[in-house]
């Protein structure tokens, strides 16, 4: 099992975005614009990031 983590940063505003995208960003733990969180690299997290890929940037951290 790898110890890879994903560093997820919100780079776009949620103003005017659909409710499901707002809920995904909130579920990722992002609280404000330019906020950053670390998550384990799992298929569930990757799927969530894929849904809001236009609002966030992702870096792999070892």
Describe this protein's structure.
By secondary structure, the chain is α+β, with helices and mostly antiparallel strands. The chain has a single domain, classed as Ribosomal Protein L30, Chain: A (2-Layer Sandwich). 29% of the residues lie in helices and 27% in strands. Strands 2-1-3 form a three-stranded antiparallel β-sheet, with no helix packed on it. It is globular, with a radius of gyration of 11 Å. The mean pLDDT is 96.
Task: Give a nutshell description of this structure.
It is built from two helices and three strands, in the order βαβαβ. The chain is of the alpha+beta class.
Which series of helices and strands comes N to C?
EHEHE
Q: Any low-confidence stretches, pLDDT <50, length ≥5?
A: none
Instruction: Look at the structure and name the CATH superfamily.
Output: Ribosomal protein L30/L7
Q: Quickly give the structural class.
A: alpha+beta
C-alpha termini separation: 12 Å
Residue-averaged pLDDT, rounded? 96
> How is the CATH topology named?
Ribosomal Protein L30, Chain: A
Strand count: 3
State the helix count.
Answer: 2
| CATH architecture annotation name | 2-Layer Sandwich
Radius of gyration: 11 Å
Helices and strands, with pairings:
Blueprint: E1 5-10, H1 19-27, E2 36-40, H2 43-51, E3 56-61
Antiparallel strand pairs: 1-2, 1-3
List keywords for this structure.
62 residues; 27% strand; three-stranded antiparallel β-sheet; alpha+beta
